[in-house]
Design goal:
Length: 228
C-alpha cells in the first residue's frame, strides 16, 4: 500500500456567484460528489475531511466512503475567511502523515492525475516540501501599463514557441503539517513542486459560465465513452 494522505475538502453552504453550488446537480449528480468519489477511489487517500457550515452538505456526504464531516467553527464562517486558516483548523483532525487539499469545484479532475501528482510529491521529497497543480499558458501577456510579460513584440514568435507561464489552478495542493508550519501556515511550502495538468481537467467552477462549460465537457466525455 502506498504512503497515506488525509484529504481536506472544505465546502461552505453559501456561494455568491453560483447559488447552492456544492449541491447543485451537474450532469445529474450533485457537484460535490464528482471530486469526493475520485478521492474515495484513490489507494493513497486514507480519509476525507469535509469541513462545512451547512446541514444539507453534511447529510449529502457524511455516509460516503472515507468521509468524515468537520463542523466549521463560527469564527471560520463567511465569504472572506482565508483558506489557510481553515486548513490550520482541519490539520488538528488529520490522521495521515501527508495532506492533500482540493475543492468540489474541479469535477473534471481525474483519478489518474490525482495519483500521478501524489506519487510525484512523494518522489520529490526532501528536495521539494509541497506540490500544487498548474496550467501552462502560452500566449502574449501584458502588464496593465502595456509592458510585455513574456515576449518581445519586435520578434513576434509563434505562441507555441514562447516559454510557458504557469497559472495556479486551485485543483490540488499537497503538503505536510511540518511544511505548513515551516511556511508560516501556508499550503504552498518553501520549496514547492509545480505539477502541470491538462487544461480541461483544470476547469474550476466559479460562475455560471464555468458550470455550463463543465456540464458540456462531462456530457461530451460521456457520449464519447470516457465515463467519469
Amino acid at each position: 500500500m502506498p504512503e497515506q494522505f488525509t484529504a481536506l475538502m472544505p465546502m461552505k453552504g453559501h456561494s455568491e456567484r453560483v447559488p447552492d453550488k456544492n449541491l447543485r446537480p451537474l450532469a445529474g449528480r450533485p457537484l460535490c460528489l464528482w471530486m469526493l468519489e475520485i478521492l474515495a477511489a484513490s489507494s493513497f487517500v486514507a480519509e476525507i475531511l469535509v469541513n462545512t457550515d451547512n446541514d444539507r452538505i453534511r447529510r449529502q456526504v457524511e455516509n460516503l466512503p472515507k468521509a468524515k464531516v468537520i463542523d466549521r467553527p463560527e469564527a471560520l464562517c463567511g465569504d472572506f475567511v482565508p483558506m489557510n486558516a481553515i486548513i490550520a483548523h482541519d490539520l488538528n483532525f488529520a490522521a495521515a502523515p501527508h495532506i492533500l487539499q482540493t475543492h468540489s469545484t474541479n469535477p473534471l479532475f481525474s483519478l489518474a492525475t490525482l495519483e500521478a501528482a501524489l506519487a510525484a510529491y512523494l518522489s520529490a521529497r526532501p528536495k521539494h516540501d509541497s506540490l500544487f497543480t498548474v496550467t501552462a499558458r502560452q500566449g502574449r501577456f501584458y502588464q496593465p501599463d502595456g509592458r510585455t510579460v513574456n515576449h518581445d513584440p519586435a520578434e513576434l514568435k509563434r505562441t507555441q514557441d514562447l516559454e510557458p507561464i504557469y497559472e495556479e489552478n486551485s485543483c490540488l495542493y499537497v503538503f505536510s503539517s511540518t511544511s505548513f508550519q515551516a511556511a508560516g501556515g501556508r499550503r504552498i511550502g518553501l520549496r514547492p513542486l509545480l505539477f502541470p495538468i491538462a487544461k480541461l481537467e483544470a476547469v474550476d467552477i466559479d460562475d455560471e459560465d464555468d458550470f455550463i462549460l463543465a456540464e458540456a465537457l462531462i456530457t461530451a466525455r460521456s457520449r464519447d465513452g470516457g465515463g467519469k
